[in-house]
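Quick one before lunch.
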Amino acid sequence: MSEETKNAAPRRVLSGMRPTGRLHLGNYMGALKNWVALQNETNPDGSAKYECYFFIADYHALTTDYADTSEIRKNVRDVILDFLAGGLDPKLSTIFIQSHVPAHFALHCLLEMITPLGWLERVPTYKDQQEQLREKDLATIGFLGYPVLQSADILIYQAEFVPVGQDQAAHVEITREIARRFNHLYGSKHGTAAADAKSDKERLAELEQQADVREILPEPKVLLTPSPKLPGTDGRKMSKSYGNTILLSDPEPEIRAKLKTMVTDPARVRRTDPGNPDVCPVFDLHKVFSTAEVQAQAAEGCRTAGIGCIQCKGWLADAVVAELKPIQERRRYFEERPDEVDAILKDGARRANARAAVTMAQVQAAVGLE
Ligand code: TRP
Ligand code: SF4
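Model of the tryptophan complex:
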């Protein structure tokens, strides 16, 4: 039977987000919207194509914010509201908080034992982030070990796919390497660590040569999120650290006000100057949010000085407001029902713990623990 016709078991998908506070349009277009699409994908027979796990990485927040944890709880709350507002559905996805599933940390500990320091020092985000967050002391084991914890997040579910943006691809790659090393060490069909006179080095080299290893921890594949260029109001990439964001939960007047001040084609100084949409960040947003007709109208009006930038931005605001309307309605629904949110998280943790226990039992046995 072909892949298409057989009623295959849903393929496991996992992704997570650090709790950095209310999500902005960049987080939505670059991650959450794609997660919702995966969650909703069905086979021809109507069954779910993916078994989805989506979580909030609150321990990961500690890797950089351990000295001031005062915001974490509120940020977790805001992200969970945005997850639900954005369309994650607890009936279709397992939605949970990392710290509610202790198996992440048990596996993390085992993976730390086998991960060479050099692998971690070479991860590009390690030095970059240290440079960018100079005001923080990030010379900690926790920060260096960030990718190992992320590997545990993924491998504890034996996930097949990890939908992330390009910035996280290196972390999925090191997850694959750690999984491979684990499988070579503990998945050997000839038994682990033969008790003979060989040195650790010789034994490792030998294990890495063996072809017949069991895949206890399958190597996950990155599912790169197609991310359209999404500039913030200052024209740079939309990012919380630049203070140029439009939040999913911004009220309509605020969205309109923010877009009104957005930078445009710098060469279009006067209303009578024709502009060039190809170099205008406002137009980049039109390409993401506006219909083809509105885009054509805006481009034509810009090039001929037929419209002013204020009008052009008004059309964009209409499109953004329309996209966010159902999201904001759902957010209000859940804001008013904290008990329902708690119940969703509790059930998510229950399901996640149950799945993690399956992996952990295999892992404990393979390593040779009771
Ligand atoms: N590092 C990811 C980020 O900063 C968050 C994350 C933690 C994650 N664990 C994960 C993403 C596991 C995917 C899979 O966005
Ligand atoms: Fe940009 Fe629109 Fe102004 Fe043209 S009319 S410069 S596309 S904001």
